[in-house]
Amino acid sequence: MRFIYLILVILISAVVFIFTFQNLSTVTVSFLHWQLHTPVSIAVVVVYFLGMLTGGSLVSLIKSWIRGSTKRPTP
User: Fold this and answer.
1) How far apart are CA 36 and CA 44, in angstroms?
2) How far apart are alpha carbons 41 and 11 in whole angstroms?
């Protein structure tokens, strides 16, 4: 099983490496009055991590709401 994980890590790393070097052209990212010139691959990675952060926060918030609504009040 360890070898399967190792092969998967190598394949995913290779895909990320190829993606990075094929997308070195720069894009301009604008937010309000700020502008940032960055390679496409960096922009995609940053957006991916921001999505993971916000998605994880939303899931934990919903779980806490569910736990809070299912607790019975103590008399």
Assistant:
1) 13
2) 18
Q: Where are the domains of the chain?
A: 40-75
Q: Nearest-CA neighbor of 43 among 19, 27, 21?
A: 27
pTM above 0.70, yes or no: no
Tokens 């921001």 sit at which residue?
Answer: 50
8-state DSSP, 73:
P
Rounded CA-CA distance 47/38 in Å is 12
Task: Convert the pLDDT of each residue in 47-73 to its tens digit.
Answer: 888 888 888 787 787 888 887 777 666
